[in-house]
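Hi Prof. W.,

I finally got the Fatty acid desaturase domain-containing protein prediction working! I wasn't sure whether to trim anything, so I left the full sequence exactly as given:
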Amino acid sequence: MDTRNNVTLCDSHKFKIVKHNVLKFAYMHLAALYGFYLCFTSAKWATVIWGFLLLEGAKLGITAGAHRLWCHRAYKAKMPLQIILLILNSIAFMNTAIYWVRDHRIHHKYTDTDADPHNSRRGFFFSQIGWLFVRKHPQVMEKGKTIYMDDIYSNKLLVFQRKHAIIVIGLWAYIIPLVIPMYLWNESLNNSWHICVMLRHVLTINLIFLVNSIGHRWGNRPFDKSIKPVENVAVSILSTGECFHNYHHVFPFDYKASELRDTVFNAATIFINFFAWVGWAYDLKIIPDKMIIARSQRTGDGKNLWGWGDKDQTEEETKSVQLIYRKK
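And this is what came out:
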């Protein structure tokens, strides 16, 4: 049997379907489709714009917040920024930040094995959203107990969100998105619910989870060709900068989650850089160029999207490309 770190890469385990999750997500996706229809038929433009702003904020609550700040500790944030990120994370409603961090740390430690909550070896649908329809694999439960979480459990803000999840997430993910269009510009309850709550929520989940599915399937592997995570610019744009995924799995502590210091294709990095300028984000971690190039030349597939670090490049050519793509 193929194993990694005493964990099977894909066994014959039969998953138990969680029926109420299947019904819940079926309703949400049908409601989201109806919400998309309403965007073009009866909703006010202010409602569509509000829904879009909620969507982008929610994605940042996952990418800049739960992912880069709390999970990977790729930078530090002062309390005002942490509060903003916790609100955005609550809007996203992909469970509590503590739950999300634990699952993501398991994902990195046991990538694409049966201990990975959304193991891409089980197929595109499973890694995209199907893993939410079933009970976790026993290996996920077992290995999850070994994941370091002391830093997260000592964060009073995250503990507060988990302790009062019904109130905090209910307020920011449902009530506020719903009532603002109704009271500020007299939108209907029907439009507000289906666009600003259901459509926004379903898009948040699916756009972020494209990194789990497409991000482990279609693209280049310029830093480590032996692992499944790939580089996919289209998914990176849709997920606010999260699908320079081959790089991220090799260097998970880079605050940009990308080999580029340029903010192109990376809205989360723009967000963090802004708050670094304000002074609320600090200790931003980056990986030295020499280390990135050396790893790319040693274990990459030779298909770097940006043309630096290629094996047949001269030293002068590498320096020239670095100036373009790695500029501060």
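Residues 106 and 312 are 37 Å apart (CA to CA). Does that look reasonable to you?

Thanks,
D.
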